[in-house]
Design brief:
Low-confidence stretches: 279-289
Number of strands: 13
Helix content: 25-40%
Mean pLDDT: 83
Order of helices and strands: HHEEEEEEEEEEHEEEHH
Distance between the termini: 39 Å
Radius of gyration: 24 Å
C-alpha cells in the first residue's frame, strides 16, 4: 500500500475522528517504522562495502580550501594521473581523505578537484587511512554498528561479488566466527570504526556489519522511504496508526508508544526471525555448520 492509500483507509474505516492532517499520519508512520527496525534480528543485518581511503597531506603553499560541494568529486593528480573521489577533508590541517580508484598519488605533485574548488600540492607521503570511518552516508541507515568483517563475499554468502548494498534480509551461509572480524575500535555513539592495523587495499575485502535502521519518511508522497515490507502494511502500519490515534484521542492514562505498538510489532518481529531461521539455521544444521 502507498501512504496515501493508508490515510484513505484510516478515514474510511474509522469515521470522521480520523480525518487528521497528512503530517500526523507521517509522524505516526515514522514512529512505527523506526520501532519496527529497532530490534537486533539477523534478518536486519546489513553487510555494506567499506572503501579504504588514503590520507593526503598538502602543503600550505598554494593551498585552496575545499568546499562541501567538492565531496564525492574526482581528485586528479596532475603528474601521476591518479584519480580518486574526495570523501572528507580538513582545510585547517590540509588533509584530504581520498578513495583511490586509479593510479597512485605521489609526493610533490599538485592535486586538483575536477569541477571543484580545492587545490593543493602533496607535501608528505600518502598514507593509508586507519580511521575513524563513518557510517553516516551509507545507503541503508545504520542503527547499531557491530563491526567490520575481513572475509570474502564467498565466505559470507557462498558466492563472489554479491550485490547486497540494498538487499533486505540477505541470508548468509556462515555464522559469525572469531576470525570473521577485523581488529578495530567501534564507537557506538558516533557509529564509527577505527582500524588497529593498517588496512589492506583489496577492493571489497572489508564490509560494514550493522543492524539497519529505517529511513525518515519526509511526506505523504515519500513512498520510497516506506521500507516496511508491504505484507505488514495492514497488520502493523495501519493497525499501529489507528492504535496511536486512539490513544491520542481517548487515552485516559499515560501509555508509551512501546506499550501501544508492542502487540503488532512482536508478531512482525517473530515472523521476520522465523523467516530467517526457516531458511538459514535449518541449512546450517543440515550442512553441519
Amino acid at each position: 500500500m502507498q501512504l496515501e492509500e493508508i490515510l484513505t483507509l484510516c478515514e474510511q474505516e474509522n469515521g470522521a475522528k480520523f480525518l487528521f492532517e497528512e503530517e500526523t499520519l507521517v509522524i505516526y508512520a515514522n514512529q512505527i517504522q523506526k520501532m519496527a527496525f529497532a530490534k537486533d534480528l539477523k534478518v536486519f543485518e546489513v553487510f555494506s562495502v567499506l572503501n579504504i581511503f588514503h590520507e593526503i597531506s598538502l602543503s600550505s603553499t598554494g593551498y585552496t580550501n575545499c568546499a562541501t560541494t567538492d565531496l564525492s568529486k574526482n581528485v586528479i593528480g596532475t603528474t601521476s594521473g591518479a584519480i580518486g573521489s574526495l570523501e572528507d577533508y580538513n582545510n585547517l590541517a590540509r588533509l584530504w581523505h581520498v578513495h583511490v580508484t586509479s593510479g597512485t598519488f605521489i609526493e610533490g605533485e599538485q592535486v586538483t578537484i575536477q569541477t571543484g574548488t580545492g587545490i593543493g600540492t602533496i607535501d608528505d607521503s600518502v598514507d593509508i587511512y586507519k580511521g575513524p570511518y563513518s557510517t553516516a552516508n551509507l545507503d541503508i541507515p545504520c542503527r547499531k554498528l557491530k563491526g567490520v568483517s575481513s572475509v570474502t563475499d564467498s565466505q559470507i554468502f557462498g558466492g563472489d561479488d554479491q550485490d547486497v548494498e540494498n538487499d533486505y534480509g540477505m541470508i548468509r551461509t556462515f555464522d559469525m566466527q572469531r576470525d570473521f572480524w577485523t581488529l578495530g575500535r567501534v564507537n557506538q555513539v558516533s557509529k564509527t570504526f577505527t582500524f588497529i592495523n593498517t588496512p589492506v587495499l583489496t577492493e571489497g575485502y572489508y564490509r560494514w556489519v550493522y543492524y539497519r535502521g529505517a529511513p525518515t519518511i519526509a511526506s505523504i508522497s515519500d513512498n520510497d522511504n516506506l521500507v516496511l515490507p508491504e505484507e505488514y502494511h495492514y497488520s502493523v502500519l495501519y493497525n499501529g496508526i489507528i492504535a496511536l490515534a486512539d490513544n491520542a484521542t481517548y487515552g485516559e492514562k499515560p501509555t508509551t508508544p512501546d506499550q501501544i505498538l508492542y502487540p503488532y510489532l512482536s508478531q512482525y518481529w517473530a515472523a521476520m526471525e522465523d523467516q530467517y531461521l526457516d531458511v538459514g539455521e535449518d541449512n546450517h544444521r543440515r550442512l553441519g555448520w
